[in-house]
Amino acid sequence: MKSLFVFIWEVVKVVVIATAIVVPIRYFLFQPFLVKGQSMEPNFANGDYLIIDQLSYRFREPQRGEVVVFKYPQMPSQRYIKRILGLPGETVEVKEGKVVVSGFELKEYYLPSSVFTDEKGFERVALGENEYFVLGDNRPASSDSRVWGILPGENIIGRVFIRAWPFVVFAKVEAPEY
């Protein structure tokens, strides 16, 4: 009887310790995200399993080119994934199928050359403090800042840090240079 009690006590200790380690990591440092839809193809596909870094933006601001997961401004219970292209204080417009930020055309080498960025009725926007302009990589199939407007910084959950699944493309996700 005593050995059963000792065994149960050991199991309880392991569960408590594991919970004390996992819960803070999950809720304050990293969290999983499952890509739903095709708005980030060809770089992230439907069903890709990603790890989101929630810590970085507590120490620095989001950077152009980073892929972020955020609360959709029109329905905060939904999570979206997009790429940051416009930063606070910049102007963003779409000219002849290309994204132009503060007068400079972005060279988006991570997209196929055939990608055409449709304006979708979007006109030039000036971003204020803590405001971001985000686009999906699959421009024709993406609901993004061209459609619903700017992304408030407080809606950003974190940046995509690791693509964990499918395992054959497991990799750390880096922001492109512009």
Walk me through what this model shows.
There is one protein chain. By secondary structure, this protein is an alpha+beta fold. The chain is built from two helices and twelve strands; from the N terminus they run αβββββββββαβββ. The chain has a single domain (33-172), classed as Umud Fragment, subunit A (Ribbon), CATH 2.10.109. The chain has helices at residues 2-29, 145-148, and strands at 30-34, 49-53, 67-71, 79-86, 91-95, 98-101, 104-105, 125-126, 131-135, 151-152, 156-165, 171-172. The model has no long low-confidence stretch (mean pLDDT 85).
Low-confidence segments, given as residue ranges, are none
Helix content: 10-25%
How many angstroms separate the termini?
Answer: 68 Å
Order of helices and strands: HEEEEEEEEEHEEE
Number of domains: 1
Mind telling me which CATH architecture this is? Ribbon
Could you give a quick summary of the protein structure above?
The protein is an alpha+beta fold. The protein has helices at residues 2-29, 145-148, and strands at 30-34, 49-53, 67-71, 79-86, 91-95, 98-101, 104-105, 125-126, 131-135, 151-152, 156-165, 171-172. Strands 1, 2, 3, 4, 9, 10, 11 and 12 form an 8-stranded antiparallel beta sheet that branches. A 4-stranded antiparallel beta sheet has the order 7-6-5-8, with no helix packed on it.
